[in-house]
Amino acid sequence: MKKNKLGWTEFHFTGIGLGTWAMGGEDWKFGWGPQDDDLSIATIHRALDLGINWIDTAAVYGLGHSETVVGKALKGMQEKPYIATKCARVWNKNKEIDYNLKRDNIIKECEDSLRRLQIERIDLYQLHWPMPEEDIEEGWSAIAELVAEGKVHYGGVCNFNAAQLARIEEIHPVASLQPPYSMLVRGIEKETLPWCKRHNIGIVGYSPMFKGLLTGAFTRERSATLPATDHRSRDPHFQEPELSINLRLVEGLSAIAARNGKTTQELAIAWTLRNPEVTAAIVGARRPEQLDDFTNAADWTLSPDDINDVEKLLVEREEALKEA
Ligand SMILES: NC(=O)c1ccc[n+]([C@@H]2O[C@H](COP(=O)([O-])OP(=O)(O)OC[C@H]3O[C@@H](n4cnc5c(N)ncnc54)[C@H](OP(=O)(O)O)[C@@H]3O)[C@@H](O)[C@H]2O)c1
What we know:
Elements: E1 3-5, E2 12-14, E3 16-19, H1 37-49, E4 54-56, H2 65-74, E5 82-87, E6 89-91, E7 97-99, H3 103-117, E8 122-127, H4 136-149, E9 152-158, H5 162-169, E10 176-178, H6 192-198, E11 202-206, H7 220-224, H8 242-259, H9 264-272, E12 280-284, H10 288-292, H11 304-323
Parallel strand pairs: 3-4, 3-12, 4-5, 5-8, 8-9, 9-10, 10-11, 11-12
Antiparallel strand pairs: 1-2, 6-7
Helix pairs in contact: 1-2, 3-4, 8-9, 8-11
Residues 19-22, 32, 56, 128, 158-159, 178, 206-212, 215, 217, 265, 282-286, 290, 293-294 line the site of NADP nicotinamide-adenine-dinucleotide phosphate.
């Protein structure tokens, strides 16, 4: 699988990274319904067999559970993939989740993540959200401290905008930004992408298939029967009136994918990789066979015609949403 240099760092990430949010299981506010750990581990092993060389997780996914599963899957491996994880979303004994960018919290969280992941150093340690915003400098200084100590190789951030990146870049160089990026969420295109390009900061976009919606696997029936422990059951993109409009878009996407002999999943992912400044897409999978539908996406360069045709479909979707 094609690899891309992560911004100014010496890491080379495959165009697809494996996302492990759903592997956190269902026992927390942002779960994805029931998930079997053995299946999660088999999915991680299959991803590595297919050539994916990095995994993204976070302390908060399943309140430590996703990191524990990743640690188990990689235990004893001679050559581990790059591991990216995140901090600064915390929880209490009632499983209530909050933001915390205070220095002492981040230093402690790093120890907890190293223990759960069963590693000595985190390859890419990311601030999960720029919240509370007044503390972003303090949180980023703590990441710089962990890099100096050798517990973290590179520091990155998620969900930051250009102005927030500019504030922290002065303290310590930012290796990567992890923003949401898919056909349905394009907020980074105007300012953040160009800013990262100018500063040679790697971009690893998340949810390229919009949590499974841009795959052809979602139907009205499936949306209506999502378990209450699957957070998508509360997401308006998966509810009417948006759902029908989104499903119409997916029909159009499937036709573009089919005429290229590709899957809808591949089209959704390859579209996010059409900008050379995007290093990689973080794609979530929870069963090994799901990987087979999309691992070739990183090696597909969309033609200008395909990009234009996707754009037309997205404009139609925007218009339909205005009328809905
Ligand atoms: N930094 C942040 O704030 C942030 C936020 C969100 C995500 N992320 C990261 O980005 C990763 C990817 O996000 P995501 O999980 O939302 O990404 P996604 O790739 O858009 O969606 C993944 C989901 O799509 C479904 N799916 C996977 N393969 C499929 C296939 N072949 N056919 C049909 N459906 C398929 C699976 O759910 P079902 O099978 O249940 O449908 C899977 O969990 C996360 O795991 C996480 O590591 C980070």
